[in-house]
Amino acid sequence: MTEPLATELVAEVSAFARSFMARTFNLRFTMLNKTDPVIEVRGLCKKVKDATGELTILDNIDLAIEAGSSVAIVGASGSGKSTLLGLLAGLDSASSGSVRLLGRELTTLNEDERAALRSGSVGFVFQSFQLMPHLTALENVTLPLELQGGIGTREAALRARGLLEQVGLGQRTNHYPKLLSGGEQQRVALARAFVTHPAILFADEPTGSLDAATGHAVIDLMFQMNRANGATLILVTHDVELARRCDTTVTIEAGRLA
Ligand SMILES: Nc1ncnc2c1ncn2[C@@H]1O[C@H](COP(=O)(O)OP(=O)(O)OP(=O)(O)O)[C@@H](O)[C@H]1O
Ligand SMILES: [Mg+2]
Questions:
Q1: CATH for 6-28+68-90+111-257?
Q2: How big is the CA angle at 85 (ends 84 and 86), to the nearest 5 degrees?
Q3: Cβ–Cβ < 8 Å for 163, 193
Q4: Domains in the chain: boundaries
Q5: Which residues line ligand 1 (CB under 6 A)?
Q6: How many CB atoms lie within 10 A of CB 49?
């Protein structure tokens, strides 16, 4: 998956804000039964044009993910894991096939409607973090709460600060991303994804830049959220400990389910 640059994230954020209005005034969301899968994928394909013609990145993926479960997506580098994660979260559009996220068929929604569905329900940790460079760690984590609305500035900052403390960054809240190490940026990205208490947390190699002890603490935090809020965890990982703790493992080999 080609990840959006920070400037594209700004566009994403403004789409997110517009879509919040759309959601508030226009959209109705399908209520899910407890037993319904939070994600259901049928015949999902992603193809892109490249110099040699057409490249098939994902080929005919079928998948169902139960609410409150934890899923590890594993596979070799270049097998299509990040692309799949972006499609499941509605950040990217499929070439064919269907993706139902929280009862809504993503292929029938436009970008604003997909952003509305994501806001408040989906947290996403990008493989390359994608923090806003001109915002401090605290402001990065507070931003999703401000966009979501319904929470005062003081409370939003308190909640964000609490999460930064939980990921061990209580002393770095006023640092800008460029002044943080890779592992510290990754933890800010995790705090930002957790802060709205999303129903589904997507994380692309969330422990990839962390030392063993910090990685362990972050894994504990994700599963704590999984238990406390019934959040579904969908994690791309090469981390054996993390994959082992998940309920199921999905293996991708050259764009196909193994
Ligand atoms: N927009 C694009 N255009 C062309 N090729 C792409 C595009 N996006 C992804 N690819 C290719 O698709 C394949 C799968 O990419 P993806 O990023 O999903 O892999 P991955 O399994 O996440 O790998 P890694 O473990 O290294 O992060 C790669 O070969 C990549 O080069
Ligand atoms: Mg990847």
A1: 3.40.50.300
A2: 90
A3: no
A4: 6-28+68-90+111-257
A5: 1-2, 48, 50, 55, 57, 75, 77-83, 127
A6: 8
pLDDT by residue for the chain (258 residues), tens digit each? 555 544 445 445 544 444 444 343 333 334 455 567 999 999 999 999 988 899 999 999 999 999 999 999 999 999 999 999 999 999 999 999 999 999 999 989 998 899 888 887 999 999 899 999 999 999 999 999 998 888 999 999 999 999 999 999 999 999 999 999 999 999 999 999 999 999 999 999 999 888 998 888 889 888 988 888 889 999 999 999 899 999 999 999 999 999
Q: What is the pTM of this model?
A: 0.85
> Could you identify the residue written with the tokens 């709205």?
196
Contact (Cβ atoms closer than 8 angstroms) between residue 80 and residue 59: no
Distance CA 158, CA 80 (A): 38
Query: Cα-flanking dihedrals φ and ψ of residue 200, to 5°?
Result: -130, 130
Residue nearest to atom 13 of ligand 1 (CA): 78
Query: How far apart are the CA of 1 and the centre of ligand 1, in A?
Result: 5
Ligand with the closest atom to the CA of 1? 1
Residues near ligand 2 ion, CB 5 Å cutoff: 82, 127
Please tell me the distance from the alpha carbon of residue 184 to that of residue 177, in angstroms, as a whole number.
9
* CA–CA distance, 45 with 50 (Å, rounded to integer): 16
Whether residue 73 contacts residue 236, with contact meaning beta carbons closer than 8 Å, is answered with yes
